């Protein structure tokens, strides 16, 4: 089954990351691309046979709006932050797989600790893995996780650890993820 892809014109030179290497490169104004995935807060583009990841904050470069939702959580108690962290993690996607990192089973630990320097603030520690140890997108995905968690109320610090024990395998995915991928 071929998914519908939208062809877009790059309207300004913009920095993207090569998939799966994670190497930053410039995408020149006037380049044609196909949007293969627009999930979470980024776009995966196919450009001259190569996949690249475009940050949502640069969506205007392809004539789109930033898909990052602006959410007002109001006055949140520290005890109410963990569900918000998991909600934020579910907006992070591997640029090659249309399933979020939680449903893929990539998040092994999410722990909220008191932030030592300010009462009521939190330090979030996340252990996550990758679908393959050599995946160059690991740092890109970890940075996205870090950024989204730090934007949550009461979170003052976030540590994202990339771990490979236990090694990831398909059995760690949710049933919904397996169905979506036809497994």
From TrEMBL:
Which InterPro entries does the entry link to? Answer: Fe-S_Maturation_MIP18, FeS_assembly_SufT_put, FSCA_dom_sf, MIP18-like
Domain MIP18 family-like spans what residues?
85-161
* Chain segments annotated as transmembrane: none
Q: Which NCBIfam families match?
A: FeS_long_SufT
Query: What name appears for this protein in its UniProt entry?
Result: Fe-S cluster assembly protein SufT
């Amino acid at each position: 089954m071929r998914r519908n892809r939208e062809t877009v014109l790059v309207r300004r030179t913009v920095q993207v990351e090569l998939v799966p290497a994670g190497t930053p490169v410039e995408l020149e104004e006037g380049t044609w691309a196909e949007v293969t995935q627009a999930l979470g807060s980024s776009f995966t583009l196919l450009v001259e046979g190569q996949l690249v990841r475009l940050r949502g904050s640069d969506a205007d470069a392809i004539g789109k709006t930033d898909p990052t939702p602006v959410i007002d959580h109001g006055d949140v108690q520290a005890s109410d932050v963990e569900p918000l962290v998991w909600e934020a993690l579910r907006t992070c996607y591997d640029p090659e797989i249309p399933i979020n990192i939680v449903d893929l089973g990539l998040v092994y630990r999410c722990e909220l600790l008191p932030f030592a320097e300010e009462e009521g603030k939190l330090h979030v520690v996340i252990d996550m893995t990758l679908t393959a140890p050599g995946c160059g997108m690991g740092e890109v995905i970890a940075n996205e996780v870090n950024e989204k968690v730090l934007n949550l109320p009461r979170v003052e610090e976030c540590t994202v650890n990339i771990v490979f024990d236990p090694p990831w395998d398909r059995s760690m995915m949710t049933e919904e993820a397996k169905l979506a991928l036809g497994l």
